[in-house]
Protein backbone atom coordinates (compact mmCIF):
# COMPACT_ATOMS: atom_id res chain seq x y z
CA UNK A 1 0.00 0.00 0.00
CA UNK A 2 2.94 2.33 0.43
CA UNK A 3 3.42 2.19 -3.26
CA UNK A 4 -0.08 3.41 -3.92
CA UNK A 5 0.41 6.63 -2.05
CA UNK A 6 2.50 7.93 -4.88
CA UNK A 7 0.20 6.79 -7.62
CA UNK A 8 -3.10 7.91 -6.24
CA UNK A 9 -1.97 11.40 -5.40
CA UNK A 10 -4.46 13.57 -3.65
CA UNK A 11 -6.72 14.77 -6.38
CA UNK A 12 -7.48 18.19 -5.00
CA UNK A 13 -8.73 20.32 -7.87
CA UNK A 14 -6.15 22.98 -7.15
CA UNK A 15 -6.21 26.18 -9.03
CA UNK A 16 -2.73 25.26 -10.20
CA UNK A 17 -4.23 23.29 -13.04
CA UNK A 18 -5.26 26.50 -14.63
CA UNK A 19 -2.23 28.67 -13.99
CA UNK A 20 -0.20 29.57 -17.00
CA UNK A 21 3.34 28.89 -18.04
CA UNK A 22 4.56 32.31 -16.96
CA UNK A 23 3.28 31.77 -13.46
CA UNK A 24 4.91 28.37 -13.31
CA UNK A 25 8.22 29.85 -14.33
CA UNK A 26 7.80 32.59 -11.75
CA UNK A 27 7.11 29.93 -9.11
CA UNK A 28 10.26 28.06 -10.08
CA UNK A 29 12.28 31.27 -9.98
CA UNK A 30 10.94 32.23 -6.57
CA UNK A 31 11.36 28.75 -5.12
CA UNK A 32 14.58 27.65 -6.75
CA UNK A 33 15.80 26.13 -3.48
CA UNK A 34 13.03 23.54 -3.67
CA UNK A 35 14.33 22.45 -7.06
CA UNK A 36 17.87 22.26 -5.76
CA UNK A 37 16.52 20.01 -2.98
CA UNK A 38 15.06 17.45 -5.38
CA UNK A 39 17.94 17.77 -7.83
CA UNK A 40 20.31 15.17 -6.27
CA UNK A 41 17.57 12.52 -6.16
CA UNK A 42 16.52 13.25 -9.73
CA UNK A 43 20.07 13.18 -11.07
CA UNK A 44 20.91 9.95 -9.25
CA UNK A 45 17.68 8.37 -10.45
CA UNK A 46 18.43 9.29 -14.04
CA UNK A 47 21.99 7.97 -13.84
CA UNK A 48 21.39 4.77 -11.88
CA UNK A 49 17.82 3.89 -12.86
CA UNK A 50 17.08 5.37 -16.28
CA UNK A 51 20.50 4.99 -17.83
CA UNK A 52 20.40 1.23 -17.10
CA UNK A 53 16.93 1.10 -18.69
CA UNK A 54 18.53 2.50 -21.81
CA UNK A 55 21.39 0.07 -21.24
CA UNK A 56 18.93 -2.79 -21.61
CA UNK A 57 19.55 -2.29 -25.32
CA UNK A 58 22.61 -4.50 -24.90
CA UNK A 59 20.19 -7.42 -24.67
CA UNK A 60 19.65 -6.88 -28.39
CA UNK A 61 23.30 -6.27 -29.18
CA UNK A 62 26.60 -8.03 -29.05
CA UNK A 63 28.00 -5.87 -26.31
CA UNK A 64 31.66 -5.17 -26.01
CA UNK A 65 32.93 -2.75 -23.43
CA UNK A 66 35.31 -1.13 -25.90
CA UNK A 67 32.59 -0.30 -28.42
CA UNK A 68 30.11 0.88 -25.80
CA UNK A 69 26.36 0.46 -25.82
CA UNK A 70 25.72 2.49 -28.96
CA UNK A 71 28.70 1.18 -30.90
CA UNK A 72 28.10 -2.52 -30.32
CA UNK A 73 26.56 -4.50 -33.15
CA UNK A 74 22.84 -5.24 -33.26
CA UNK A 75 21.89 -8.90 -33.07
CA UNK A 76 18.13 -8.53 -32.66
CA UNK A 77 16.52 -11.32 -30.69
CA UNK A 78 19.51 -13.60 -31.02
CA UNK A 79 20.20 -13.79 -27.26
CA UNK A 80 16.55 -14.44 -26.49
CA UNK A 81 16.40 -17.23 -29.05
CA UNK A 82 19.55 -18.69 -27.63
CA UNK A 83 18.02 -18.62 -24.15
CA UNK A 84 14.70 -20.16 -25.25
CA UNK A 85 16.56 -22.92 -27.07
CA UNK A 86 19.04 -23.55 -24.29
CA UNK A 87 18.83 -27.06 -22.87
CA UNK A 88 18.27 -25.71 -19.36
CA UNK A 89 15.63 -23.13 -20.34
CA UNK A 90 12.64 -25.16 -19.20
CA UNK A 91 14.34 -26.19 -16.01
CA UNK A 92 15.22 -22.58 -15.17
CA UNK A 93 11.74 -21.34 -15.96
CA UNK A 94 9.95 -24.02 -13.96
CA UNK A 95 12.37 -23.78 -11.06
CA UNK A 96 11.82 -20.05 -10.88
CA UNK A 97 8.06 -20.30 -11.19
CA UNK A 98 7.75 -23.15 -8.72
CA UNK A 99 10.01 -21.56 -6.14
CA UNK A 100 8.05 -18.31 -6.30
CA UNK A 101 4.58 -19.76 -6.54
CA UNK A 102 5.08 -22.26 -3.72
CA UNK A 103 6.76 -19.53 -1.74
CA UNK A 104 3.81 -17.25 -2.26
CA UNK A 105 1.17 -19.90 -1.52
CA UNK A 106 2.90 -21.03 1.66
CA UNK A 107 4.38 -17.76 2.78
CA UNK A 108 1.63 -15.28 2.00
CA UNK A 109 -1.05 -16.44 4.47
CA UNK A 110 1.33 -16.84 7.42
CA UNK A 111 1.69 -13.14 8.34
CA UNK A 112 -2.08 -12.69 8.03
CA UNK A 113 -2.82 -15.60 10.36
CA UNK A 114 -0.11 -14.36 12.69
CA UNK A 115 -1.65 -10.89 12.81
CA UNK A 116 -5.14 -12.28 13.44
CA UNK A 117 -3.75 -14.36 16.31
CA UNK A 118 -1.70 -11.50 17.75
CA UNK A 119 -4.81 -9.37 17.65
CA UNK A 120 -6.38 -11.71 20.17
CA UNK A 121 -3.66 -11.10 22.74
CA UNK A 122 -5.34 -8.52 24.92
CA UNK A 123 -2.51 -7.68 27.30
CA UNK A 124 -0.49 -4.97 25.60
CA UNK A 125 2.79 -5.84 27.33
CA UNK A 126 2.44 -9.53 26.48
CA UNK A 127 1.68 -8.67 22.85
CA UNK A 128 4.73 -6.41 22.67
CA UNK A 129 6.98 -9.15 23.99
CA UNK A 130 5.68 -11.73 21.55
CA UNK A 131 6.15 -9.28 18.70
CA UNK A 132 9.68 -8.56 19.87
CA UNK A 133 10.59 -12.21 19.31
CA UNK A 134 8.61 -12.60 16.10
CA UNK A 135 10.35 -9.63 14.47
CA UNK A 136 13.87 -10.55 15.58
CA UNK A 137 14.89 -12.77 12.61
CA UNK A 138 14.23 -9.85 10.27
CA UNK A 139 17.38 -8.26 11.66
CA UNK A 140 19.59 -11.21 10.86
CA UNK A 141 21.33 -11.04 7.49
CA UNK A 142 20.59 -13.50 4.68
CA UNK A 143 24.18 -14.69 4.82
CA UNK A 144 23.80 -15.60 8.48
CA UNK A 145 20.39 -17.24 7.93
CA UNK A 146 21.82 -19.43 5.17
CA UNK A 147 24.89 -20.04 7.32
CA UNK A 148 22.59 -21.20 10.11
CA UNK A 149 20.84 -23.54 7.69
CA UNK A 150 24.19 -25.08 6.77
CA UNK A 151 25.07 -25.55 10.43
CA UNK A 152 21.69 -26.77 11.69
CA UNK A 153 21.01 -29.07 8.75
CA UNK A 154 24.53 -30.36 8.14
CA UNK A 155 24.91 -34.16 8.04
CA UNK A 156 26.21 -34.03 11.61
CA UNK A 157 24.05 -31.13 12.74
CA UNK A 158 21.29 -31.14 15.35
CA UNK A 159 18.44 -31.78 12.92
CA UNK A 160 20.12 -34.88 11.56
CA UNK A 161 20.89 -35.98 15.13
CA UNK A 162 17.12 -35.99 15.64
CA UNK A 163 16.59 -37.85 12.39
CA UNK A 164 19.08 -40.49 13.51
CA UNK A 165 17.58 -40.61 16.99
CA UNK A 166 14.27 -41.53 15.40
CA UNK A 167 15.97 -44.30 13.48
CA UNK A 168 16.48 -42.54 10.16
CA UNK A 169 19.55 -42.05 8.02
CA UNK A 170 21.16 -38.59 7.99
CA UNK A 171 19.75 -36.50 5.14
CA UNK A 172 21.75 -34.12 2.98
CA UNK A 173 19.42 -31.18 3.34
CA UNK A 174 21.72 -28.62 1.79
CA UNK A 175 22.89 -30.61 -1.21
CA UNK A 176 19.98 -32.85 -2.23
CA UNK A 177 17.90 -31.02 -4.86
CA UNK A 178 14.56 -32.13 -3.33
CA UNK A 179 15.24 -30.25 -0.11
CA UNK A 180 16.17 -26.96 -1.73
CA UNK A 181 12.65 -25.55 -2.06
CA UNK A 182 11.40 -26.47 1.41
CA UNK A 183 14.59 -25.14 2.99
CA UNK A 184 14.42 -21.92 0.99
CA UNK A 185 10.73 -21.29 1.59
CA UNK A 186 10.55 -22.32 5.24
CA UNK A 187 13.63 -20.34 6.21
CA UNK A 188 12.08 -17.39 4.38
CA UNK A 189 8.93 -17.72 6.45
CA UNK A 190 10.99 -18.11 9.61
CA UNK A 191 12.82 -14.91 8.82
CA UNK A 192 10.13 -12.73 7.30
CA UNK A 193 6.66 -13.70 8.45
CA UNK A 194 6.78 -11.87 11.78
CA UNK A 195 7.94 -8.66 10.21
CA UNK A 196 5.43 -8.94 7.37
CA UNK A 197 2.62 -9.21 9.93
CA UNK A 198 3.21 -5.64 11.19
CA UNK A 199 1.18 -4.09 8.42
CA UNK A 200 -1.79 -6.37 9.13
CA UNK A 201 -1.52 -5.81 12.88
CA UNK A 202 -1.69 -2.08 12.19
CA UNK A 203 -4.72 -2.50 9.95
CA UNK A 204 -6.46 -4.60 12.61
CA UNK A 205 -6.04 -1.78 15.11
CA UNK A 206 -8.66 0.08 13.07
CA UNK A 207 -11.41 -2.43 13.84
CA UNK A 208 -14.14 -0.74 15.85
CA UNK A 209 -14.43 -2.63 19.19
CA UNK A 210 -18.16 -1.85 19.18
CA UNK A 211 -18.56 -4.18 16.21
CA UNK A 212 -17.11 -7.02 18.25
CA UNK A 213 -19.29 -6.17 21.23
CA UNK A 214 -22.44 -6.08 19.13
CA UNK A 215 -21.56 -9.35 17.40
CA UNK A 216 -20.80 -11.05 20.70
CA UNK A 217 -24.16 -9.95 22.09
CA UNK A 218 -25.77 -11.47 19.02
CA UNK A 219 -24.09 -14.74 19.89
CA UNK A 220 -21.22 -14.74 17.41
CA UNK A 221 -18.32 -16.94 18.42
CA UNK A 222 -14.74 -15.72 18.42
CA UNK A 223 -13.93 -17.54 15.20
CA UNK A 224 -17.01 -16.10 13.54
CA UNK A 225 -16.01 -12.61 14.60
CA UNK A 226 -12.48 -13.08 13.27
CA UNK A 227 -13.91 -14.37 10.03
CA UNK A 228 -16.61 -11.74 9.55
CA UNK A 229 -15.20 -8.64 11.25
CA UNK A 230 -11.38 -8.80 11.40
CA UNK A 231 -10.74 -10.41 8.06
CA UNK A 232 -12.92 -8.03 6.01
CA UNK A 233 -11.20 -5.08 7.70
CA UNK A 234 -7.77 -6.08 6.44
CA UNK A 235 -9.01 -7.23 3.05
CA UNK A 236 -7.86 -4.11 1.17
CA UNK A 237 -4.38 -4.47 2.66
CA UNK A 238 -4.30 -8.14 1.71
CA UNK A 239 -5.30 -7.25 -1.86
CA UNK A 240 -2.46 -4.78 -2.24
CA UNK A 241 0.07 -7.14 -0.70
CA UNK A 242 -1.00 -9.91 -3.10
CA UNK A 243 -0.42 -7.67 -6.10
CA UNK A 244 2.96 -6.53 -4.85
CA UNK A 245 4.03 -10.07 -4.04
CA UNK A 246 2.87 -11.37 -7.41
CA UNK A 247 4.78 -8.65 -9.22
CA UNK A 248 7.89 -9.62 -7.31
CA UNK A 249 8.30 -5.97 -6.37
CA UNK A 250 8.84 -6.67 -2.72
CA UNK A 251 11.32 -9.42 -3.39
CA UNK A 252 14.86 -8.33 -2.86
CA UNK A 253 16.00 -10.53 -5.71
CA UNK A 254 17.66 -13.88 -5.76
CA UNK A 255 20.30 -13.14 -3.14
CA UNK A 256 19.35 -16.10 -1.02
CA UNK A 257 19.18 -18.50 -3.94
CA UNK A 258 22.69 -17.43 -4.91
CA UNK A 259 23.88 -18.33 -1.40
CA UNK A 260 22.07 -21.66 -1.29
CA UNK A 261 22.95 -22.65 -4.84
CA UNK A 262 25.58 -25.32 -5.34
CA UNK A 263 26.44 -27.76 -8.06
CA UNK A 264 24.79 -30.61 -6.21
CA UNK A 265 21.38 -29.01 -5.75
CA UNK A 266 21.32 -26.96 -8.93
CA UNK A 267 18.73 -29.23 -10.50
CA UNK A 268 16.19 -27.34 -8.36
CA UNK A 269 18.14 -24.37 -7.09
CA UNK A 270 19.13 -22.99 -10.46
CA UNK A 271 16.68 -20.15 -10.99
CA UNK A 272 16.80 -17.20 -13.35
CA UNK A 273 18.53 -14.95 -10.82
CA UNK A 274 21.30 -17.44 -10.07
CA UNK A 275 21.70 -18.03 -13.80
CA UNK A 276 21.95 -14.31 -14.53
CA UNK A 277 24.55 -13.97 -11.82
CA UNK A 278 26.56 -16.90 -13.14
CA UNK A 279 26.62 -15.94 -16.79
CA UNK A 280 26.77 -12.20 -16.12
CA UNK A 281 29.35 -11.88 -13.40
CA UNK A 282 31.26 -15.11 -13.46
CA UNK A 283 31.40 -15.49 -17.24
CA UNK A 284 31.08 -11.77 -18.11
CA UNK A 285 28.53 -12.63 -20.78
CA UNK A 286 26.78 -9.28 -20.45
CA UNK A 287 24.44 -9.24 -23.43
CA UNK A 288 23.08 -12.73 -22.92
CA UNK A 289 22.70 -12.16 -19.20
CA UNK A 290 20.87 -8.87 -19.76
CA UNK A 291 18.51 -10.62 -22.19
CA UNK A 292 17.68 -13.30 -19.63
CA UNK A 293 17.07 -10.65 -17.01
CA UNK A 294 14.87 -8.60 -19.34
CA UNK A 295 12.80 -11.70 -19.98
CA UNK A 296 12.42 -12.08 -16.22
CA UNK A 297 11.39 -8.43 -15.79
CA UNK A 298 8.77 -8.76 -18.50
CA UNK A 299 7.33 -11.87 -16.84
CA UNK A 300 7.18 -9.99 -13.53
CA UNK A 301 5.39 -7.06 -15.12
CA UNK A 302 2.89 -9.37 -16.80
CA UNK A 303 2.28 -11.08 -13.45
CA UNK A 304 1.83 -7.72 -11.75
CA UNK A 305 -0.73 -6.47 -14.25
CA UNK A 306 -2.59 -9.77 -14.42
CA UNK A 307 -2.93 -10.12 -10.67
CA UNK A 308 -3.77 -6.44 -10.40
CA UNK A 309 -6.56 -6.98 -12.93
CA UNK A 310 -7.93 -10.01 -11.08
CA UNK A 311 -7.73 -8.33 -7.68
CA UNK A 312 -9.50 -5.25 -9.06
CA UNK A 313 -12.34 -7.49 -10.20
CA UNK A 314 -12.84 -9.17 -6.85
CA UNK A 315 -11.97 -6.14 -4.74
CA UNK A 316 -14.55 -3.62 -5.94
CA UNK A 317 -12.29 -1.87 -8.40
CA UNK A 318 -9.36 -1.23 -6.08
CA UNK A 319 -5.98 -2.24 -7.41
CA UNK A 320 -2.70 -0.44 -7.32
CA UNK A 321 -2.19 0.40 -10.95
CA UNK B 1 -15.16 -6.13 24.95
CA UNK B 2 -13.91 -7.01 28.40
CA UNK B 3 -17.35 -6.45 29.88
CA UNK B 4 -18.76 -9.39 27.94
CA UNK B 5 -17.78 -12.81 29.20
CA UNK B 6 -16.30 -15.09 26.57
CA UNK B 7 -18.08 -18.39 26.05
CA UNK B 8 -16.41 -21.68 26.85
CA UNK B 9 -15.77 -22.36 23.17
CA UNK B 10 -14.17 -18.95 22.74
CA UNK B 11 -11.92 -19.66 25.69
CA UNK B 12 -10.76 -22.87 24.03
CA UNK B 13 -10.05 -21.01 20.78
CA UNK B 14 -8.13 -18.34 22.68
CA UNK B 15 -6.16 -21.06 24.43
CA UNK B 16 -5.25 -22.65 21.10
CA UNK B 17 -4.21 -19.29 19.66
CA UNK B 18 -2.04 -18.51 22.64
CA UNK B 19 -0.40 -21.94 22.57
CA UNK B 20 0.34 -21.56 18.85
CA UNK B 21 1.92 -18.17 19.43
CA UNK B 22 4.12 -19.55 22.18
CA UNK B 23 5.17 -22.43 19.91
CA UNK B 24 6.02 -19.95 17.16
CA UNK B 25 8.14 -17.90 19.53
CA UNK B 26 9.97 -21.08 20.54
CA UNK B 27 10.47 -22.01 16.87
CA UNK B 28 11.98 -18.61 16.27
CA UNK B 29 14.28 -18.30 19.24
CA UNK B 30 15.18 -22.01 19.43
CA UNK B 31 17.72 -21.91 16.60
CA UNK B 32 19.12 -18.64 17.93
CA UNK B 33 19.67 -20.10 21.39
CA UNK B 34 21.25 -23.17 19.85
CA UNK B 35 23.72 -20.93 18.02
CA UNK B 36 24.66 -19.07 21.17
CA UNK B 37 25.17 -22.19 23.30
CA UNK B 38 26.99 -24.02 20.50
CA UNK B 39 29.34 -21.09 20.04
CA UNK B 40 30.74 -21.71 23.51
CA UNK B 41 31.27 -25.41 22.98
CA UNK B 42 34.26 -27.44 22.05
CA UNK B 43 33.49 -28.62 18.46
CA UNK B 44 34.35 -32.26 19.08
CA UNK B 45 32.08 -32.35 22.12
CA UNK B 46 29.35 -30.65 20.12
CA UNK B 47 29.79 -33.15 17.33
CA UNK B 48 29.64 -36.17 19.59
CA UNK B 49 27.18 -35.17 22.28
CA UNK B 50 25.25 -32.29 20.83
CA UNK B 51 24.37 -29.39 23.10
CA UNK B 52 25.47 -30.07 26.61
CA UNK B 53 25.41 -28.09 29.77
CA UNK B 54 28.54 -29.69 31.10
CA UNK B 55 30.89 -26.78 31.49
CA UNK B 56 33.96 -28.90 30.87
CA UNK B 57 32.86 -29.03 27.24
CA UNK B 58 32.88 -25.27 26.99
CA UNK B 59 35.55 -23.27 25.31
CA UNK B 60 36.10 -19.71 24.23
CA UNK B 61 38.43 -20.72 21.45
CA UNK B 62 35.91 -19.82 18.73
CA UNK B 63 35.59 -16.31 20.02
CA UNK B 64 39.32 -15.98 20.46
CA UNK B 65 39.77 -16.95 16.81
CA UNK B 66 37.07 -14.63 15.55
CA UNK B 67 38.31 -11.68 17.52
CA UNK B 68 41.90 -12.16 16.43
CA UNK B 69 40.97 -12.64 12.78
CA UNK B 70 42.04 -9.63 10.72
CA UNK B 71 39.55 -10.46 7.99
CA UNK B 72 36.61 -10.30 10.36
CA UNK B 73 37.78 -7.19 12.16
CA UNK B 74 38.53 -5.57 8.81
CA UNK B 75 35.14 -6.64 7.46
CA UNK B 76 33.46 -5.21 10.51
CA UNK B 77 35.21 -1.86 10.12
CA UNK B 78 34.55 -1.79 6.37
CA UNK B 79 30.87 -2.51 6.94
CA UNK B 80 30.72 0.21 9.57
CA UNK B 81 32.25 2.70 7.14
CA UNK B 82 30.11 1.71 4.14
CA UNK B 83 26.85 1.59 6.08
CA UNK B 84 27.48 4.91 7.82
CA UNK B 85 28.39 6.74 4.64
CA UNK B 86 25.46 5.15 2.82
CA UNK B 87 23.07 6.14 5.61
CA UNK B 88 24.18 9.77 5.56
CA UNK B 89 23.89 9.98 1.77
CA UNK B 90 20.58 8.20 1.32
CA UNK B 91 18.84 9.93 4.21
CA UNK B 92 19.97 13.38 3.03
CA UNK B 93 18.99 12.74 -0.57
CA UNK B 94 15.58 11.31 0.33
CA UNK B 95 14.67 13.87 2.97
CA UNK B 96 15.67 16.73 0.65
CA UNK B 97 13.60 15.26 -2.14
CA UNK B 98 10.64 14.44 0.08
CA UNK B 99 10.16 18.00 1.26
CA UNK B 100 9.28 19.81 -2.01
CA UNK B 101 7.18 16.82 -3.08
CA UNK B 102 5.10 17.25 0.05
CA UNK B 103 4.11 20.80 -0.93
CA UNK B 104 0.78 21.02 -2.71
CA UNK B 105 1.75 23.94 -4.94
CA UNK B 106 5.14 22.57 -5.97
CA UNK B 107 5.23 22.96 -9.75
CA UNK B 108 6.38 19.74 -11.41
CA UNK B 109 5.48 17.53 -8.47
CA UNK B 110 3.52 15.06 -10.59
CA UNK B 111 6.24 14.73 -13.21
CA UNK B 112 9.01 14.20 -10.68
CA UNK B 113 6.95 11.78 -8.62
CA UNK B 114 6.14 9.75 -11.74
CA UNK B 115 9.84 9.70 -12.61
CA UNK B 116 10.50 8.09 -9.22
CA UNK B 117 7.51 5.75 -9.13
CA UNK B 118 8.28 4.17 -12.49
CA UNK B 119 11.57 2.90 -11.09
CA UNK B 120 9.65 0.88 -8.51
CA UNK B 121 8.03 -1.18 -11.22
CA UNK B 122 10.60 -1.30 -13.94
CA UNK B 123 14.36 -1.25 -14.00
CA UNK B 124 17.20 -1.95 -16.36
CA UNK B 125 18.38 -4.77 -14.16
CA UNK B 126 21.60 -5.97 -12.67
CA UNK B 127 23.85 -6.08 -15.69
CA UNK B 128 23.03 -2.69 -17.24
CA UNK B 129 23.32 -1.08 -13.79
CA UNK B 130 26.66 -2.79 -13.30
CA UNK B 131 27.86 -1.45 -16.63
CA UNK B 132 26.87 2.10 -15.67
CA UNK B 133 28.73 1.77 -12.37
CA UNK B 134 31.69 0.32 -14.22
CA UNK B 135 31.81 3.07 -16.81
CA UNK B 136 31.77 5.67 -14.05
CA UNK B 137 34.94 4.09 -12.68
CA UNK B 138 33.28 3.19 -9.40
CA UNK B 139 34.08 -0.54 -9.43
CA UNK B 140 35.95 -1.76 -6.38
CA UNK B 141 35.42 1.52 -4.55
CA UNK B 142 33.16 2.47 -1.68
CA UNK B 143 31.17 4.68 -4.10
CA UNK B 144 29.72 1.67 -5.89
CA UNK B 145 28.18 0.62 -2.57
CA UNK B 146 26.86 3.97 -1.38
CA UNK B 147 25.80 5.93 -4.47
CA UNK B 148 23.76 3.75 -6.89
CA UNK B 149 21.25 2.69 -4.23
CA UNK B 150 21.07 6.05 -2.51
CA UNK B 151 17.71 7.06 -3.97
CA UNK B 152 15.04 4.98 -2.33
CA UNK B 153 11.61 5.86 -3.64
CA UNK B 154 10.10 4.18 -0.62
CA UNK B 155 12.10 6.49 1.68
CA UNK B 156 11.12 9.54 -0.33
CA UNK B 157 7.47 8.59 0.07
CA UNK B 158 7.97 8.06 3.81
CA UNK B 159 9.59 11.48 4.14
CA UNK B 160 6.92 13.12 2.01
CA UNK B 161 4.15 11.59 4.09
CA UNK B 162 5.82 12.86 7.24
CA UNK B 163 6.25 16.41 5.92
CA UNK B 164 2.61 16.52 4.84
CA UNK B 165 1.62 15.97 8.45
CA UNK B 166 3.56 18.99 9.69
CA UNK B 167 1.65 22.22 10.41
CA UNK B 168 1.97 24.64 7.53
CA UNK B 169 1.35 27.88 9.41
CA UNK B 170 4.96 28.40 10.43
CA UNK B 171 6.21 27.96 6.86
CA UNK B 172 3.75 30.47 5.58
CA UNK B 173 4.57 32.97 8.29
CA UNK B 174 8.28 32.59 7.62
CA UNK B 175 7.67 32.98 3.91
CA UNK B 176 5.79 36.21 4.44
CA UNK B 177 8.71 37.44 6.54
CA UNK B 178 10.88 36.88 3.50
CA UNK B 179 12.67 33.68 4.51
CA UNK B 180 13.99 31.55 1.67
CA UNK B 181 13.02 27.90 1.30
CA UNK B 182 16.56 27.08 2.33
CA UNK B 183 16.16 28.91 5.64
CA UNK B 184 12.71 27.46 6.22
CA UNK B 185 13.90 23.94 5.57
CA UNK B 186 16.93 24.10 7.83
CA UNK B 187 15.59 26.23 10.66
CA UNK B 188 11.96 25.07 10.83
CA UNK B 189 11.47 21.76 9.05
CA UNK B 190 14.62 19.84 9.97
CA UNK B 191 14.33 20.42 13.74
CA UNK B 192 10.81 19.01 13.57
CA UNK B 193 11.89 16.05 11.46
CA UNK B 194 14.09 14.15 13.86
CA UNK B 195 11.69 11.18 14.08
CA UNK B 196 11.54 10.56 10.34
CA UNK B 197 15.27 11.11 9.91
CA UNK B 198 15.87 8.58 12.66
CA UNK B 199 13.50 6.00 11.15
CA UNK B 200 15.04 6.35 7.69
CA UNK B 201 18.55 6.17 9.11
CA UNK B 202 17.76 2.98 11.02
CA UNK B 203 16.29 1.32 7.94
CA UNK B 204 19.15 2.41 5.73
CA UNK B 205 21.85 1.32 8.14
CA UNK B 206 20.38 -2.08 8.93
CA UNK B 207 19.58 -2.80 5.29
CA UNK B 208 23.05 -1.92 4.14
CA UNK B 209 24.77 -3.70 7.01
CA UNK B 210 22.96 -6.95 6.22
CA UNK B 211 23.37 -6.81 2.46
CA UNK B 212 26.07 -8.85 0.78
CA UNK B 213 25.00 -8.74 -2.83
CA UNK B 214 26.11 -5.23 -3.81
CA UNK B 215 29.57 -5.81 -2.45
CA UNK B 216 29.70 -9.25 -4.07
CA UNK B 217 29.14 -7.63 -7.44
CA UNK B 218 31.11 -4.44 -7.08
CA UNK B 219 34.13 -5.29 -4.92
CA UNK B 220 37.11 -7.32 -6.03
CA UNK B 221 39.81 -6.57 -3.49
CA UNK B 222 39.22 -8.82 -0.49
CA UNK B 223 40.62 -6.23 1.90
CA UNK B 224 37.63 -4.07 1.06
CA UNK B 225 35.08 -6.79 1.83
CA UNK B 226 32.41 -5.86 4.35
CA UNK B 227 31.47 -8.24 7.16
CA UNK B 228 28.75 -10.09 5.23
CA UNK B 229 31.13 -11.16 2.49
CA UNK B 230 33.68 -12.33 5.03
CA UNK B 231 30.91 -14.29 6.72
CA UNK B 232 29.91 -15.80 3.42
CA UNK B 233 33.42 -17.18 3.04
CA UNK B 234 33.41 -18.66 6.52
CA UNK B 235 29.82 -19.89 6.75
CA UNK B 236 28.89 -20.89 3.24
CA UNK B 237 32.02 -21.33 1.19
CA UNK B 238 33.64 -23.00 4.19
CA UNK B 239 36.92 -21.25 3.79
CA UNK B 240 39.14 -20.43 6.70
CA UNK B 241 41.79 -17.82 6.18
CA UNK B 242 44.97 -19.85 5.50
CA UNK B 243 47.02 -17.41 7.60
CA UNK B 244 45.29 -18.58 10.72
CA UNK B 245 45.96 -22.22 10.12
CA UNK B 246 49.36 -21.91 8.52
CA UNK B 247 50.96 -23.68 11.46
CA UNK B 248 48.37 -26.38 11.52
CA UNK B 249 48.72 -28.89 8.79
CA UNK B 250 46.16 -31.48 9.57
CA UNK B 251 43.00 -31.49 7.54
CA UNK B 252 40.89 -32.62 10.48
CA UNK B 253 42.13 -29.74 12.55
CA UNK B 254 41.23 -27.38 9.74
CA UNK B 255 37.70 -28.75 9.63
CA UNK B 256 37.43 -28.51 13.39
CA UNK B 257 38.53 -24.88 13.35
CA UNK B 258 36.14 -23.98 10.57
CA UNK B 259 33.26 -25.48 12.56
CA UNK B 260 34.42 -23.68 15.64
CA UNK B 261 34.51 -20.34 13.91
CA UNK B 262 31.07 -20.67 12.36
CA UNK B 263 29.04 -20.45 15.53
CA UNK B 264 31.08 -17.67 17.03
CA UNK B 265 30.94 -15.79 13.72
CA UNK B 266 27.16 -16.08 13.59
CA UNK B 267 26.78 -14.86 17.15
CA UNK B 268 29.31 -12.04 16.96
CA UNK B 269 27.93 -10.69 13.71
CA UNK B 270 24.23 -10.87 14.58
CA UNK B 271 24.28 -9.97 18.24
CA UNK B 272 24.77 -6.19 17.93
CA UNK B 273 21.61 -5.72 15.86
CA UNK B 274 19.56 -8.25 17.83
CA UNK B 275 20.46 -6.61 21.11
CA UNK B 276 19.93 -3.08 19.86
CA UNK B 277 16.73 -3.54 17.93
CA UNK B 278 14.30 -3.88 20.88
CA UNK B 279 15.24 -0.35 21.91
CA UNK B 280 14.35 0.89 18.46
CA UNK B 281 11.37 -1.38 17.88
CA UNK B 282 8.82 1.41 17.93
CA UNK B 283 10.77 3.37 15.33
CA UNK B 284 11.00 0.40 13.00
CA UNK B 285 7.29 -0.22 13.34
CA UNK B 286 6.66 3.44 12.75
CA UNK B 287 8.47 3.14 9.45
CA UNK B 288 6.08 0.47 8.27
CA UNK B 289 3.05 2.39 9.54
CA UNK B 290 3.92 5.81 8.14
CA UNK B 291 4.34 4.25 4.74
CA UNK B 292 0.94 2.64 4.90
CA UNK B 293 -0.82 5.96 5.40
CA UNK B 294 -2.03 7.44 2.22
TrEMBL record, chain B:
Q: What topology does it adopt in the membrane?
A: Multi-pass membrane protein
Q: What is its main location?
A: membrane
Compartments, as annotated in UniProt: Cell membrane
Residue stretches spanning the membrane: 12-37, 79-99, 111-130, 142-163, 184-206, 260-280
The record, for InterPro entries, names:
MetI-like (IPR000515), MetI-like_sf (IPR035906)
- Report the Pfam families cross-referenced here: BPD_transp_1
Q: Where is the ABC transmembrane type-1 domain?
A: 76-272
Record's keyword terms, sorted: Cell membrane, Membrane, Transmembrane, Transmembrane helix, Transport
To which protein family does this belong? Answer: Belongs to the binding-protein-dependent transport system permease family.
PANTHER family associated with the record: ABC TRANSPORTER PERMEASE PROTEIN MG189-RELATED-RELATED (PTHR43744), POLYGALACTURONAN_RHAMNOGALACTURONAN TRANSPORT SYSTEM PERMEASE PROTEIN YTCP (PTHR43744:SF9)
Q: What is this protein called?
A: Aldouronate transport system permease protein
Species per Swiss-Prot/TrEMBL record: Paenibacillus silagei
Amino acid sequence: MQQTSGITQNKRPEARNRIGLMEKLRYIKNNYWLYLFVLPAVVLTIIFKYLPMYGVLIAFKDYSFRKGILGSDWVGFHHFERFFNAPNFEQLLFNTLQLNIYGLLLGFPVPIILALMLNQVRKAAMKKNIQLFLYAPNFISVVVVVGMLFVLFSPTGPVNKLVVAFGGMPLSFMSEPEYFRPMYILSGIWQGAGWASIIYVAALANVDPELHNAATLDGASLLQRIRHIDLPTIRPVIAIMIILAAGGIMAGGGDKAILMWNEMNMEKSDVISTYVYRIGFQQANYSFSAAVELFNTVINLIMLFTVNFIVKRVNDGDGIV
Amino acid sequence: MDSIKPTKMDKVVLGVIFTLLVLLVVAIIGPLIYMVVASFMEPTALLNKGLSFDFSDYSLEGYRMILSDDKIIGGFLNALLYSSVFTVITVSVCVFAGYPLALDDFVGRKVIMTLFIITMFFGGGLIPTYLVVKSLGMLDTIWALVIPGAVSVWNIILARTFFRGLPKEMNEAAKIDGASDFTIFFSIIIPLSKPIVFVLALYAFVGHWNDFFQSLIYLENQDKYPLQLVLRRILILNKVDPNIVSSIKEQAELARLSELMKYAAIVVSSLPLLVMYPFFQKYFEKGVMVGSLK
